[in-house]
Predict the structure.
Amino acid sequence: MTDVTLAAIAGAHGISGEVRLKLFAESAESLRQHKVVQAGERTLTLKSVKEGSGMPIARFVEIADRNAAEALRGTVLTVPRSALPPLEEGEYYHADIIGLLCATREGEAVGTVAAVENFGAGDILEIERPDGKKVMVPFNPTIADFVDGKIIVDPAFLA
């Protein structure tokens, strides 16, 4: 079963065990939908999430003080893919795309999706070529599109 990363713990907040989160989900609200998350080998029960100045602040039942919170710095919080809500037509989770085969419209394999990035202007696919080199291409229908379980890429963007 595939796990999906929702956030990473950036550090402690205050003295009572709260943590600052680097969020990978759409919003703190999407994190609130999950009462239980995995933090490495540990299971954590989400008690609360609130907006902070720049980063959401979370409290977990199992974390009672600043030392315990600080020990989790850098830990990613994940949930099983099956715990995510269903998608509308045309939507996707990054976890569903990573690892997919990339090919041209003519069927020539050009690599696999190594990562999906978003720097504010839309999703960008990082494609690992067979020779190990990586190239980034915008994920939009004119350059790269999701078709029949693989990514079809315009070869002009692979140079």
Summary: Helices lie at 28-32, 66-71, 94-97. The mean pLDDT is 87. The longest strand covers residues 3-13. The chain has two domains: 3-83, 94-157.
